[in-house]
Amino acid sequence: MAATSQDPAAATPRRKAGRHRGEGQWAVGHFTPLNGNEQFKKDDDGLNVRTRIETIYSKRGFDSIDPNDLRGRMRWWGLYTQRRPGIDGGKTAVLAPEELDDEYFMLRVRVDGGRLTTRQLRVVGEISQEFARGTADITDRQNIQYHWIRIEDVPEIWNRLEAVGLSTTEACGDTPRVILGSPVAGIAEDEIVDGSWAVDEIQRRVIGNPAFSNLPRKFKSAISGSPLLDVAHEINDVSFVGVRHPELGPGFDLWVGGGLSTNPKIGRRLGAWVPLEEVPEVFEGVISIFRDHGYRRLRNRARLKFLLADWGTEKFRRVLEEDYLGRRLTDGPAPEQPVARWRDHIGVHRQRDGRYYVGFAPRVGRVDGATLTKIAELAEAHGSGRLRTTVEQKMIVLDVEEDQVAPLSAGLEALGLATTPSPFRRGTMACTGIEFCKLAIVETKARGAALIDELERRIPEFDEPITINLNGCPNACARIQVADIGLKGQLVTGPDGQQVEGFQVHLGGALGLEAGFGRKVRGLKVTADELPDYVERVLKRFQEEREDGERFAS
Ligand code: SF4
């Protein structure tokens, strides 16, 4: 299957053009680009923009950037133009892209498996302070995102990141994005299987490989051998979830076709058990199906979930086995329902080697370069130098001896990083929002942080796991559809009849084996000012009316 994206015909098992020709599927012989994105990807591989950034754009400045690179291929290296300050959400849909573009970039650093060393974190912190006005957000896909990046500084930033083994390669774009991994892989007492080797091997084989750099759209993946189901496997294009096969032992249950945003879908099991050493091969098979058969005509139908919906799991598995693996997969069991109430690893937990890991909670993933540097110092002083990011915008310090847990926790608390956070701080996430995102309609990060503070003050006795996710637009970057309380940013009518920032409310979404999407509460929209009152009312009513053991989503 090795081929370059410049030569799709060589990459795909060519068949006669058939009735799916109109979907732009390479596998049925349809290679003519059917939209602007497909055209610029055909014109030049997104990976090739790096050379132009290094040799031309960083030297001649923002105005020298080709528009197809600026709003297209630069994503292949983690770069998005950020929103010009001062443009309100009402203008998001009406302004042309060039009117929304600032001359600064968001830059996403991929952290595959969420694994960081203190050496890496120090470099991340230094770059933040030197080149990104101190910004650095932990994302809900374990990445780190900078803002205010100048194109002139990008080559130097890459040099520094790559010197410590980090990269921005394919952090955005129609590519294999960061591979989510259990934040406690290799250390958890209850781990079924450690997927770290597979994360590394997939990175080595797939990331930056031109055979996989022109996909119909983004391709999200997750690997976790934790019984806590701690990587949101339900909403990735492909996931490998730790299970014990009754005869063959530990391995992974294969899920495909999850994804939020337009037409959200929970991933589906193919009923196949995959041993650790076969995960990279099966990953390559699934991503190749997506490349070859994925729909390329309409961007909002291009994710793998749409192909799976048309094919069904039986056909998907058959094509994977017959056309891509050349062998049958082994049937296997489903994962079991986790017993833990939270799956985020916050707090102090014993590792299997007798040491401890300590998970802590910044507010809505917002940290900064100076804080990251101090976290690195603490992790070095009290741990072994290993850290992890989580899919809840949180972090973990690993390998802490028992007598170092208290001083580490105190040091983190002094930085405002709670190791015993309230359920609100623990369970609230927010996307980037209008501060930097060109698609945003409302502000999210500051609002999410303020909501946490208000709820802590108003309902200090609340002790149930709860997830409150805020999005700045109808997209799904903060997973609103699977939150207990999902808040989708939009303009709403305020008390005096004016359009103001607010949210459409979705209630009762969940991840886990009972995963499902929250109900859009008909007509229920709250202004941003009303938000704390509204959430307080909902939570208090739940407290008063819940039955024994009832969860918010039930
Ligand atoms: Fe931007 Fe919308 Fe994603 Fe938030 S959800 S980061 S506003 S695209």
TrEMBL record:
It holds the Pfam family NIR_SIR_ferr. Residues 172-326, 425-554 form the Nitrite/sulphite reductase 4Fe-4S domain. The keyword Thylakoid does not apply. Gene3D superfamilies: 3.90.480.20, Sulfite Reductase Hemoprotein, domain 1 (3.30.413.10). The keyword Lipid biosynthesis does not apply. Transmembrane segments: none annotated. Residues 1-22 are annotated as: Disordered. Keywords: 4Fe-4S, Heme, Iron, Iron-sulfur, Metal-binding, Oxidoreductase, Thioether bond. Its EC number is 1.8.7.1. Its cofactor is [4Fe-4S] cluster. It catalyses: hydrogen sulfide + 6 oxidized [2Fe-2S]-[ferredoxin] + 3 H2O = sulfite + 6 reduced [2Fe-2S]-[ferredoxin] + 7 H(+). Residues 101-164, 349-414 form the Nitrite/Sulfite reductase ferredoxin-like domain. InterPro entries: NIR_SIR_4Fe-4S (IPR051329), NiRdtase/SiRdtase_haem-b_fer (IPR005117), Nit/Sulf_reduc_fer-like_dom_sf (IPR036136), NO2/SO3_Rdtase_4Fe4S_dom (IPR006067), NO2/SO3_Rdtase_4Fe4S_sf (IPR045854), NO2/SO3_Rdtase_FeS/sirohaem_BS (IPR006066). It is an enzyme of class 1 (oxidoreductase). PANTHER family: FERREDOXIN--NITRITE REDUCTASE, CHLOROPLASTIC (PTHR32439:SF0). Catalyzes the reduction of sulfite to sulfide, a step in the biosynthesis of sulfur-containing amino acids and cofactors. Belongs to the nitrite and sulfite reductase 4Fe-4S domain family. This is assimilatory sulfite reductase (ferredoxin). The lineage of its organism: Bacteria, Bacillati, Actinomycetota, Actinomycetes, Kitasatosporales.
